[in-house]
Amino acid sequence: MTNRREFIQRGVALSAAAPLAIGPTLGLTAQARPRLRPTLAVYDRGYAEGLLFARSVEAHGIATHAIDGDVTALWYDTLYHSWNAGASPIVGLTGASALFCLEQLAWKVERRVVLRTEHRQRDDGRIDHQLSGAAAPPGLLAGLDKVAWPLWSAAAIRQLPATLRRADAFRAHAITSASAGSKPWEEPLITWAITVKPLA
């Protein structure tokens, strides 16, 4: 049975190759719209999936911040100051309760959740993914069955367009296998992106 250490090591090795594999399946071209440039990626270190997500975004030059379910220190030490200074956007893979808190704080500084992918463990051992947001790259789901889903999540958030419009809102659904070494979660995990309010 794969343990957590082996799972993360395998994911790190795959993360370097993931953009090459995932990029074309997301319908990206040289003429694609400018992409969102995250200033920070938040992850919950209590989940192997969060660690794999973090390693992947770090490999692409995005700074990361680990939490243990609580976003209080993240807000007071980092986000409050950076958002008031104009910095944006941030992305993450955390539990649902952490995102709930961040979303409430974001509203106070004119930020919104523009991508929300809820991941739920099913009774049959697979993972249910419910996606919604302000915009989606073409072929968004095409790469989901080719790599571990946290790596796909890390690639997907890097492909969000820089300019978001409410008229481009989308919803999607997929079911995948669980990541190797995954353990039961206390709550659904969510991949998310927060940035300034989408245009009309």
Query: What string gives the helices and strands in order?
Result: HEHEHEHEEHEE
Largest sheet: 7 strands, mixed
Tell me the number of helical segments per DSSP (H or I, 4 or more residues long): 5
Structural class: alpha/beta
Number of domains: 1
Shape: globular
Uncertain runs: 1-31
Using DSSP, what is the number of strands? 7
Average pLDDT metric = 82
**What is the strand content?**
15-25%
Helix content: 25-40%
| CA distance, first residue to last residue | 50 Å
**What does the radius of gyration come to?**
16 Å
The strand line-up of the biggest sheet is 2-1-3-7-4-5-6
What's a quick, concise take on this entry?
By secondary structure, the chain is α/β, with parallel strands linked by helices.
Description:
The protein has 200 residues and is of the alpha/beta class. The protein has one domain. It is 34% helix and 24% strand. The protein contains five helices and seven strands; from the N terminus they run αβαβαβαββαββ. The chain has helices at residues 4-25, 48-58, 72-84, 96-107, 149-158; strands at 40-44, 64-67, 90-95, 111-121, 127-133, 170-176, 189-196. It has a seven-stranded mixed sheet, with helices on both faces. The longest helix is centred in the first third of the chain and has 22 residues, at 4-25.
